[in-house]
Amino acid sequence: MELLASLLVGFSIFCTFLSMAGSRVRREAVLNLAGAGNIPRRRARRGKSLNTIFWYLSERLGKLFSGSGESEVKRLLREAGLDWTVPRFMGIRRLSGLTFCLLLLPLGITGAPILPLVYIAGSRVPALWLKRRRHLALEALGADLPEVVDLVAVLCYAGESLPRSLKHSLSVVQHPQTRRELEEVVEGLQLGAGLCEALSRVVDHPSRELRRFARTVVRAEESGSPVSEVLARLAAEMRAARRERNRVRAARVSVLVLFPLVFMILPSFLLLTVGSMIIGRSL
């Protein structure tokens, strides 16, 4: 019973945060529905907004309890595409641990022995979320790169130089992480750096596709091979690898569908059929 009460308290806190996060959206939707969406309204001061207060507390808490591994956290934040500072993320970890500890309040003194474990588990949740976001960002970067490589190859076929081809190919980039990485390469080329020097920052990138693209261009530049042909083959291989990943992901969906079927639909069916028969016989 105490565990059920803790889960209900946690669910209530989660719903409260969702309600506060979406209150402005709902308010604007109601005003637009009433025809008052275009009426100028006095903007709330920055210091009074709930969002600003939350980020300020996170920053202060992160600076107060700063730990080791800041370079690793900074790298993960950059690869995940987040413009957060390291103290902000560390403060969010502390707040997450304290929020999980609040779930033990209904247990009273009996929940004190597991309080440190709950705090550690709660502080690990933002780290797991960050790694998951980084993984998704790298997947999106790899999925967006074949069209960019293909356009660079076409522009090189048309007689454009590789630096100008990279600059023009930014127009087809959809993922912000891919655009940021390529913009840094183009910026290095515009500042006078050589092609190999500008691509050296992405040669060891965690994305396999971007790393492969940079190393292929560097090898073609050093060996004197035609870059357009090399990039055309690379784009074809990247598209084939993307189709294979999509095929594997689609095949995995059919297995995942079994989980709601076995654990939700089938028990409901048994309760409605077998359970009603058992109740009828008992009556």
Describe the structure.
The protein has 283 residues and is mostly helical. The chain has a domain at 138-247: Receptor-associated Protein (Up-down Bundle). The protein contains 12 helices and no strands. The longest helix is centred in the middle third of the chain and has 43 residues, at 115-157. The two termini are 30 Å apart. Mean pLDDT is 77; it is low at 41-48.
The CATH class assignment of the domain at 138-247 is: Mainly Alpha
CATH superfamily of the domain at 138-247: Type II secretion system (T2SS), domain F
Helix fraction, binned, reads: over 70%
The outline comes out as flat
**How far is the N terminus from the C terminus?**
30 Å
CATH topology name of the domain at 138-247 = Receptor-associated Protein
> Helical region count?
12
List the uncertain runs: 41-48
What is the overall pLDDT average? 77
**Binned strand content:** under 5%
CATH architecture of the domain at 138-247: Up-down Bundle
Largest sheet: none
Say how many strands there are. 0
Radius of gyration: 27 Å
Q: Which structural class do you get from the secondary structure elements?
A: mainly alpha
Order of helices and strands: HHHHHHHHHHHH
